[in-house]
Design brief:
Elements: E1 4-5, E2 10-12, H1 15-26, E3 29-31, E4 41-43, H2 45-58, E5 63-70, H3 71-78, E6 95-103, H4 109-127, H5 143-150, E7 151-158, E8 162-169, E9 176-185, E10 196-199, H6 201-209, E11 222-225, H7 230-239, E12 241-242, H8 255-263, E13 267-268, H9 273-287, H10 291-305, H11 313-333, H12 339-364, H13 369-390
Parallel strand pairs: 6-9, 12-13
Antiparallel strand pairs: 1-2, 2-11, 3-4, 5-6, 5-10, 7-8, 8-9, 10-11
Helix pairs in contact: 1-3, 2-4, 8-11, 9-11, 10-12, 11-12
Length: about 400
Amino acid sequence: MTSTVSSESHFTLDYKKVLKLGQVLEKPVPIHSSREDFPDVSVKPIDLVRAIEERILKADEVFLHDVRLNGSAATWVVDDDPRTTIGGRDRLYNDIDLIFRLDIPCEYNFDGILQAALFGFLDAIRSSGETLPGLGGADTPNPYKLQEAYVRKLVRVWSSSDHWCLISFHNLKGLDLELKFVGLCHRPYEFSVDSFQVIIDSYLALKKVSQANSPYLFPTVDVETMWGDVDEALRHVNERWIATRNPESIRGGGLLKYCKLLVLGYRPAYGDLRRMERYMCSRFFIDFPTPGAVEAQITKYLETHFRQVREHYISACQASAFLWTLLRVVEISSDCLTVGDRHPILQVIVNLARGIELPFILAARPAEQGRAQQQQARASNKQTRHHREHGGELSRSNRVLVGRCPVA
Protein backbone atom coordinates (compact mmCIF):
# COMPACT_ATOMS: atom_id res chain seq x y z
CA MET A 1 0.00 0.00 0.00
CA THR A 2 1.24 3.49 -0.71
CA SER A 3 0.13 6.86 0.49
CA THR A 4 -2.28 8.70 -1.78
CA VAL A 5 -1.24 12.09 -3.11
CA SER A 6 -4.24 14.43 -3.12
CA SER A 7 -2.68 17.77 -4.06
CA GLU A 8 0.69 19.36 -4.57
CA SER A 9 1.31 19.90 -0.84
CA HIS A 10 -1.12 17.35 0.69
CA PHE A 11 -1.38 13.57 0.72
CA THR A 12 -3.21 10.85 2.66
CA LEU A 13 -1.65 8.21 4.89
CA ASP A 14 -2.09 4.54 4.03
CA TYR A 15 -3.12 1.94 6.61
CA LYS A 16 0.41 1.02 7.74
CA LYS A 17 1.31 4.64 8.36
CA VAL A 18 -1.93 5.23 10.25
CA LEU A 19 -0.79 2.41 12.56
CA LYS A 20 2.52 4.21 13.05
CA LEU A 21 0.63 7.39 13.88
CA GLY A 22 -1.35 5.45 16.47
CA GLN A 23 1.87 4.20 18.02
CA VAL A 24 3.02 7.79 18.49
CA LEU A 25 -0.27 9.12 19.84
CA GLU A 26 -1.36 6.20 22.04
CA LYS A 27 1.86 5.16 23.74
CA PRO A 28 2.22 6.72 27.22
CA VAL A 29 5.01 9.29 27.49
CA PRO A 30 6.78 9.67 30.87
CA ILE A 31 6.69 13.18 32.32
CA HIS A 32 9.25 13.64 35.07
CA SER A 33 8.78 15.97 38.00
CA SER A 34 11.37 18.54 39.02
CA ARG A 35 9.87 18.72 42.54
CA GLU A 36 10.25 16.02 45.18
CA ASP A 37 6.65 16.43 46.37
CA PHE A 38 5.23 15.68 42.90
CA PRO A 39 5.48 12.19 41.38
CA ASP A 40 6.57 11.28 37.88
CA VAL A 41 3.53 10.66 35.68
CA SER A 42 2.74 9.26 32.24
CA VAL A 43 0.29 10.64 29.71
CA LYS A 44 -0.84 9.51 26.29
CA PRO A 45 -0.53 12.30 23.71
CA ILE A 46 -4.01 11.46 22.39
CA ASP A 47 -5.54 11.95 25.86
CA LEU A 48 -3.65 15.20 26.33
CA VAL A 49 -4.85 16.58 22.98
CA ARG A 50 -8.47 15.68 23.71
CA ALA A 51 -8.37 17.31 27.14
CA ILE A 52 -6.78 20.52 25.84
CA GLU A 53 -9.21 20.66 22.91
CA GLU A 54 -12.14 20.51 25.34
CA ARG A 55 -10.65 23.33 27.40
CA ILE A 56 -10.00 25.52 24.37
CA LEU A 57 -13.46 24.92 22.91
CA LYS A 58 -14.98 26.24 26.16
CA ALA A 59 -13.08 29.52 25.74
CA ASP A 60 -14.56 32.32 23.64
CA GLU A 61 -11.34 34.21 22.92
CA VAL A 62 -9.66 31.84 20.44
CA PHE A 63 -10.79 29.54 17.61
CA LEU A 64 -9.17 26.13 17.09
CA HIS A 65 -8.67 25.15 13.43
CA ASP A 66 -6.99 21.76 13.81
CA VAL A 67 -4.28 19.80 15.65
CA ARG A 68 -1.17 18.49 13.90
CA LEU A 69 1.77 16.22 14.60
CA ASN A 70 5.02 17.86 13.52
CA GLY A 71 8.77 17.38 13.80
CA SER A 72 10.74 14.14 13.79
CA ALA A 73 7.73 12.05 14.89
CA ALA A 74 5.77 13.21 11.83
CA THR A 75 8.78 12.39 9.63
CA TRP A 76 8.91 8.92 11.21
CA VAL A 77 5.24 8.37 10.41
CA VAL A 78 5.56 9.21 6.69
CA ASP A 79 8.92 7.46 6.22
CA ASP A 80 8.95 4.32 4.05
CA ASP A 81 12.24 3.06 5.54
CA PRO A 82 11.67 -0.49 6.93
CA ARG A 83 13.73 0.37 10.02
CA THR A 84 10.96 2.76 11.07
CA THR A 85 8.08 0.27 10.92
CA ILE A 86 6.33 -1.00 14.03
CA GLY A 87 8.59 -3.52 15.71
CA GLY A 88 11.68 -2.12 14.00
CA ARG A 89 14.77 -1.75 16.12
CA ASP A 90 15.23 1.99 15.58
CA ARG A 91 13.19 4.86 16.97
CA LEU A 92 14.29 7.66 14.72
CA TYR A 93 12.41 10.44 16.49
CA ASN A 94 13.24 12.09 19.77
CA ASP A 95 10.32 14.45 20.17
CA ILE A 96 6.54 14.56 19.86
CA ASP A 97 5.59 18.02 18.65
CA LEU A 98 1.88 18.82 18.64
CA ILE A 99 0.69 21.99 16.92
CA PHE A 100 -2.64 23.57 17.80
CA ARG A 101 -3.52 25.97 14.97
CA LEU A 102 -5.53 28.83 16.41
CA ASP A 103 -6.86 32.29 15.71
CA ILE A 104 -5.13 34.38 18.38
CA PRO A 105 -6.51 37.93 18.41
CA CYS A 106 -3.93 39.43 20.76
CA GLU A 107 -0.97 38.57 22.95
CA TYR A 108 -3.18 38.74 26.04
CA ASN A 109 -4.86 35.49 24.90
CA PHE A 110 -1.67 33.54 25.61
CA ASP A 111 -2.54 33.50 29.32
CA GLY A 112 -5.84 31.72 28.67
CA ILE A 113 -4.24 29.32 26.18
CA LEU A 114 -1.49 28.30 28.59
CA GLN A 115 -3.97 27.89 31.42
CA ALA A 116 -6.11 25.65 29.18
CA ALA A 117 -3.00 23.59 28.37
CA LEU A 118 -2.07 23.11 32.02
CA PHE A 119 -5.63 22.29 33.08
CA GLY A 120 -5.87 19.91 30.12
CA PHE A 121 -2.65 18.24 31.26
CA LEU A 122 -4.21 17.81 34.71
CA ASP A 123 -7.41 16.40 33.17
CA ALA A 124 -5.40 13.87 31.15
CA ILE A 125 -3.51 12.73 34.24
CA ARG A 126 -6.70 12.33 36.23
CA SER A 127 -8.39 10.42 33.40
CA SER A 128 -5.57 7.88 33.57
CA GLY A 129 -6.28 7.30 37.27
CA GLU A 130 -3.24 9.13 38.65
CA THR A 131 -3.52 11.45 41.65
CA LEU A 132 -1.31 14.42 42.41
CA PRO A 133 -0.73 15.96 45.84
CA GLY A 134 -0.97 19.62 46.71
CA LEU A 135 -3.33 20.66 43.92
CA GLY A 136 -6.34 21.44 46.07
CA GLY A 137 -9.82 20.15 45.34
CA ALA A 138 -10.96 18.70 42.02
CA ASP A 139 -12.48 22.04 40.98
CA THR A 140 -9.66 24.27 42.23
CA PRO A 141 -6.29 22.94 41.00
CA ASN A 142 -3.22 25.12 41.09
CA PRO A 143 -1.75 25.44 37.57
CA TYR A 144 1.36 27.24 38.83
CA LYS A 145 2.43 24.21 40.84
CA LEU A 146 1.85 22.06 37.78
CA GLN A 147 4.02 24.36 35.70
CA GLU A 148 6.80 24.40 38.27
CA ALA A 149 6.80 20.63 38.60
CA TYR A 150 6.35 19.41 35.03
CA VAL A 151 7.10 22.18 32.51
CA ARG A 152 10.69 22.27 31.28
CA LYS A 153 10.36 25.18 28.88
CA LEU A 154 7.78 27.89 28.30
CA VAL A 155 8.16 30.26 25.34
CA ARG A 156 5.96 33.11 24.08
CA VAL A 157 6.60 34.90 20.80
CA TRP A 158 4.55 37.85 19.56
CA SER A 159 5.91 39.86 16.64
CA SER A 160 4.83 41.07 13.22
CA SER A 161 5.59 37.64 11.69
CA ASP A 162 5.13 35.23 14.61
CA HIS A 163 2.29 34.67 17.06
CA TRP A 164 2.87 31.47 19.02
CA CYS A 165 3.64 29.98 22.40
CA LEU A 166 5.20 26.68 23.38
CA ILE A 167 5.14 24.34 26.37
CA SER A 168 7.73 21.56 26.71
CA PHE A 169 7.36 18.96 29.46
CA HIS A 170 10.17 17.40 31.49
CA ASN A 171 11.38 14.08 30.10
CA LEU A 172 14.71 12.55 31.09
CA LYS A 173 14.58 9.69 28.57
CA GLY A 174 15.17 11.72 25.44
CA LEU A 175 11.55 11.93 24.25
CA ASP A 176 10.33 15.51 24.44
CA LEU A 177 6.59 16.20 24.46
CA GLU A 178 5.96 19.73 23.20
CA LEU A 179 2.76 21.66 22.63
CA LYS A 180 2.87 24.62 20.27
CA PHE A 181 -0.10 26.99 19.97
CA VAL A 182 0.28 28.83 16.68
CA GLY A 183 -1.56 31.79 15.27
CA LEU A 184 1.19 32.83 12.84
CA CYS A 185 4.60 31.33 12.12
CA HIS A 186 6.83 32.69 9.37
CA ARG A 187 9.18 29.67 9.31
CA PRO A 188 7.37 26.39 10.14
CA TYR A 189 10.30 24.09 9.22
CA GLU A 190 14.09 24.06 8.90
CA PHE A 191 14.67 21.31 6.31
CA SER A 192 12.39 19.50 3.88
CA VAL A 193 12.51 16.32 5.99
CA ASP A 194 10.91 18.10 8.98
CA SER A 195 8.31 19.99 6.95
CA PHE A 196 5.53 17.42 7.40
CA GLN A 197 2.44 18.15 9.48
CA VAL A 198 0.08 15.22 10.10
CA ILE A 199 -3.47 16.52 10.70
CA ILE A 200 -4.76 14.23 13.45
CA ASP A 201 -8.36 15.46 13.90
CA SER A 202 -9.87 12.60 11.88
CA TYR A 203 -7.86 10.07 13.89
CA LEU A 204 -9.15 11.59 17.15
CA ALA A 205 -12.74 11.57 15.88
CA LEU A 206 -12.69 7.91 14.86
CA LYS A 207 -11.06 6.86 18.13
CA LYS A 208 -14.02 8.32 20.00
CA VAL A 209 -16.32 5.73 18.43
CA SER A 210 -13.96 2.83 17.66
CA GLN A 211 -10.71 1.79 19.30
CA ALA A 212 -9.75 -0.71 16.59
CA ASN A 213 -8.05 -0.07 13.27
CA SER A 214 -8.29 -2.50 10.39
CA PRO A 215 -7.40 -2.37 6.70
CA TYR A 216 -11.13 -1.91 6.08
CA LEU A 217 -11.87 0.67 8.77
CA PHE A 218 -9.29 3.30 9.52
CA PRO A 219 -9.39 7.10 9.48
CA THR A 220 -8.48 9.19 6.46
CA VAL A 221 -5.50 11.15 7.76
CA ASP A 222 -4.21 14.04 5.68
CA VAL A 223 -0.63 15.27 5.73
CA GLU A 224 0.59 18.67 4.60
CA THR A 225 4.19 19.38 3.73
CA MET A 226 5.18 22.99 4.25
CA TRP A 227 7.96 22.39 1.70
CA GLY A 228 5.26 22.66 -0.97
CA ASP A 229 6.16 19.69 -3.17
CA VAL A 230 4.96 16.36 -1.75
CA ASP A 231 6.92 14.11 -4.11
CA GLU A 232 10.15 15.97 -3.55
CA ALA A 233 9.80 16.12 0.24
CA LEU A 234 8.97 12.40 0.48
CA ARG A 235 11.91 11.55 -1.76
CA HIS A 236 14.21 13.53 0.54
CA VAL A 237 12.94 11.53 3.54
CA ASN A 238 13.19 8.13 1.88
CA GLU A 239 16.57 8.80 0.27
CA ARG A 240 17.99 10.54 3.38
CA TRP A 241 18.69 13.85 1.64
CA ILE A 242 19.17 17.27 3.20
CA ALA A 243 17.55 20.28 1.54
CA THR A 244 16.52 23.68 2.82
CA ARG A 245 15.57 27.11 1.57
CA ASN A 246 16.90 30.42 2.84
CA PRO A 247 18.88 29.04 5.81
CA GLU A 248 19.71 32.62 6.77
CA SER A 249 16.06 33.01 7.84
CA ILE A 250 16.31 30.16 10.39
CA ARG A 251 17.37 31.13 13.90
CA GLY A 252 20.83 29.66 14.20
CA GLY A 253 20.78 28.95 10.46
CA GLY A 254 19.85 25.31 11.05
CA LEU A 255 23.55 24.54 11.55
CA LEU A 256 23.16 22.19 14.53
CA LYS A 257 20.23 20.33 12.98
CA TYR A 258 22.20 20.01 9.73
CA CYS A 259 25.15 18.39 11.56
CA LYS A 260 22.83 16.00 13.38
CA LEU A 261 21.27 14.94 10.06
CA LEU A 262 24.76 14.25 8.71
CA VAL A 263 25.47 12.01 11.71
CA LEU A 264 22.19 10.15 11.11
CA GLY A 265 23.30 9.31 7.58
CA TYR A 266 21.61 12.10 5.60
CA ARG A 267 23.50 13.77 2.76
CA PRO A 268 22.98 17.12 0.97
CA ALA A 269 20.51 16.70 -1.88
CA TYR A 270 21.83 19.13 -4.45
CA GLY A 271 23.27 22.57 -5.03
CA ASP A 272 26.40 24.25 -3.75
CA LEU A 273 27.16 22.52 -0.44
CA ARG A 274 29.75 25.06 0.65
CA ARG A 275 27.38 27.92 -0.10
CA MET A 276 24.63 26.38 2.04
CA GLU A 277 27.05 25.68 4.90
CA ARG A 278 28.42 29.24 4.72
CA TYR A 279 24.89 30.65 5.00
CA MET A 280 24.14 28.43 8.00
CA CYS A 281 27.43 29.32 9.72
CA SER A 282 26.92 33.03 9.06
CA ARG A 283 23.45 33.06 10.62
CA PHE A 284 24.58 30.88 13.55
CA PHE A 285 27.38 33.25 14.50
CA ILE A 286 25.12 36.28 14.09
CA ASP A 287 22.72 34.77 16.61
CA PHE A 288 25.51 33.45 18.88
CA PRO A 289 28.45 35.82 18.42
CA THR A 290 30.69 34.88 21.38
CA PRO A 291 32.39 31.61 22.42
CA GLY A 292 30.29 31.65 25.59
CA ALA A 293 27.04 31.96 23.63
CA VAL A 294 28.17 29.22 21.23
CA GLU A 295 29.02 26.87 24.09
CA ALA A 296 25.70 27.53 25.81
CA GLN A 297 23.71 26.86 22.63
CA ILE A 298 25.59 23.68 21.75
CA THR A 299 25.28 22.40 25.31
CA LYS A 300 21.56 23.11 25.26
CA TYR A 301 21.23 21.23 21.96
CA LEU A 302 23.16 18.25 23.34
CA GLU A 303 20.93 18.12 26.41
CA THR A 304 17.81 18.17 24.24
CA HIS A 305 18.83 15.82 21.42
CA PHE A 306 21.47 13.54 22.96
CA ARG A 307 20.13 12.65 26.40
CA GLN A 308 21.94 10.30 28.79
CA VAL A 309 25.34 10.66 27.10
CA ARG A 310 27.00 10.03 30.46
CA GLU A 311 25.21 6.71 30.95
CA HIS A 312 24.84 5.25 27.46
CA TYR A 313 27.73 4.50 25.13
CA ILE A 314 25.61 4.76 21.96
CA SER A 315 24.27 8.22 22.89
CA ALA A 316 27.79 9.36 23.76
CA CYS A 317 29.12 8.15 20.41
CA GLN A 318 26.38 9.93 18.50
CA ALA A 319 26.97 13.14 20.47
CA SER A 320 30.71 12.84 19.88
CA ALA A 321 30.22 12.28 16.14
CA PHE A 322 27.87 15.29 16.07
CA LEU A 323 30.51 17.53 17.66
CA TRP A 324 33.34 16.41 15.37
CA THR A 325 31.04 16.94 12.38
CA LEU A 326 30.18 20.41 13.65
CA LEU A 327 33.88 21.13 14.08
CA ARG A 328 34.60 20.17 10.46
CA VAL A 329 31.76 22.28 9.08
CA VAL A 330 32.70 25.34 11.15
CA GLU A 331 36.39 25.03 10.30
CA ILE A 332 35.73 24.76 6.56
CA SER A 333 32.72 27.02 6.06
CA SER A 334 32.87 29.81 8.66
CA ASP A 335 34.23 32.41 6.24
CA CYS A 336 32.28 35.02 8.20
CA LEU A 337 34.77 34.71 11.09
CA THR A 338 38.30 35.97 11.32
CA VAL A 339 41.04 33.54 12.29
CA GLY A 340 41.18 35.12 15.73
CA ASP A 341 37.43 34.70 16.24
CA ARG A 342 37.29 31.22 14.78
CA HIS A 343 39.96 29.58 16.93
CA PRO A 344 38.27 30.05 20.36
CA ILE A 345 35.02 28.69 18.92
CA LEU A 346 36.76 25.62 17.50
CA GLN A 347 38.38 25.12 20.89
CA VAL A 348 34.96 25.21 22.57
CA ILE A 349 33.73 22.42 20.28
CA VAL A 350 36.87 20.34 20.84
CA ASN A 351 36.55 20.67 24.61
CA LEU A 352 32.90 19.61 24.52
CA ALA A 353 33.77 16.55 22.41
CA ARG A 354 36.62 15.55 24.73
CA GLY A 355 34.38 16.02 27.74
CA ILE A 356 31.98 13.43 26.31
CA GLU A 357 34.57 10.95 25.04
CA LEU A 358 37.17 10.86 27.79
CA PRO A 359 35.00 9.28 30.55
CA PHE A 360 34.22 6.34 28.25
CA ILE A 361 37.83 5.96 27.20
CA LEU A 362 38.96 5.89 30.81
CA ALA A 363 36.14 3.57 31.89
CA ALA A 364 37.00 1.14 29.11
CA ARG A 365 40.73 1.19 29.89
CA PRO A 366 41.25 2.11 33.56
CA ALA A 367 44.85 0.89 33.47
CA GLU A 368 45.61 3.53 30.83
CA GLN A 369 44.07 6.45 32.72
CA GLY A 370 47.38 8.17 33.33
CA ARG A 371 48.53 7.74 29.74
CA ALA A 372 45.22 9.08 28.35
CA GLN A 373 45.48 12.17 30.54
CA GLN A 374 49.07 12.72 29.42
CA GLN A 375 48.04 12.37 25.77
CA GLN A 376 45.31 14.96 26.27
CA ALA A 377 47.74 17.36 27.95
CA ARG A 378 50.32 16.91 25.18
CA ALA A 379 47.67 17.48 22.51
CA SER A 380 46.52 20.68 24.20
CA ASN A 381 50.10 21.97 24.51
CA LYS A 382 50.86 21.13 20.89
CA GLN A 383 47.68 22.88 19.80
CA THR A 384 48.56 26.00 21.79
CA ARG A 385 52.09 26.12 20.32
CA HIS A 386 50.70 25.68 16.80
CA HIS A 387 48.30 28.56 17.27
CA ARG A 388 50.98 30.85 18.70
CA GLU A 389 53.43 30.06 15.93
CA HIS A 390 51.05 30.11 12.98
CA GLY A 391 47.88 31.85 14.14
CA GLY A 392 45.98 29.23 12.18
CA GLU A 393 43.34 26.58 12.66
CA LEU A 394 43.45 23.43 14.74
CA SER A 395 45.61 20.80 13.10
CA ARG A 396 43.91 17.56 12.08
CA SER A 397 45.97 15.49 14.51
CA ASN A 398 44.67 17.57 17.40
CA ARG A 399 41.08 16.98 16.38
CA VAL A 400 41.27 13.20 16.74
CA LEU A 401 41.37 11.53 20.12
CA VAL A 402 42.87 8.11 20.77
CA GLY A 403 39.94 5.75 21.37
CA ARG A 404 37.46 8.02 19.61
CA CYS A 405 33.87 6.65 19.66
CA PRO A 406 32.50 5.26 16.40
CA VAL A 407 29.25 6.52 14.95
CA ALA A 408 26.37 4.44 16.25
